[in-house]
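Final report, results section. Input specification for complex C-07:
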Amino acid sequence: QSALTQPASVSGSPGQSITISCTGTSSDVGSYNLVSWYQQHPGTAPKLMIFEVSKRPSGVSNRFSGSKSGNTASLTISGLQAEDETDYYCCSYAGTITWVFGGGTKLTVL
Amino acid sequence: EVQLVESGGGLVQPGGSLRLSCATSRFTFSSYAMSWVRQAPGKGLEWVSGISSSVSSTYYADSVKGRFTISRDNSKNTLYLQMNSLRAEDTAVYYCAKSNNWHFDYWGQGTLVTVSS
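Structure output:
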């Protein structure tokens, strides 16, 4: 159950697009279209942003999108806004009713 | 709006025990699997344990297997985590999370567990 690999930090200017990668293995990300993404502001609970690779929950901006290729999933945020600056975590189902998270990525809006 | 409220965290000595609770409301608790996810200070999220809606099946991360026990009382809409043989590395904020198929759609605000002498 090794953690998924995310870049420690990414940055972008307001209005630009950024992509956060999430690399796993053929036992988790590569085996299941069950990757989810969570946004977490400091001191608060995580919030679901994307599920099943590319689906958005009701109420989440369409500026957030997800994709997957092989063992790597990606979260793209378009039209960056100051309020997007925070931490993002990916998560994948890993079989036998277990889940594995990424180490988290800190997004800075320049 | 779905509500999840954790309690039971605190300071405990290494080797000690603690029982966390997660009181839920505004959804049909007995219809959903639930999980505990933790976050060590300044670190990322780690899935700890999950339980099926019917209480028949429980699942654990290798890091807590044999020490932690997840349970639920569907009559009280409450999820529990019994933590025994606690170690310093178990220090974290513990979140309960509602499962919706294969993702976690609602989370509580968390309860802090500190393992230290």
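Residues 51 and 58 of chain B are 4 Å apart (CA to CA). The interface with chain A takes residues 35, 37, 44-47, 50, 57, 59, 61-63, 95, 100-110 of chain B (CB under 8 Å). This concludes the modelling results for the funded period.
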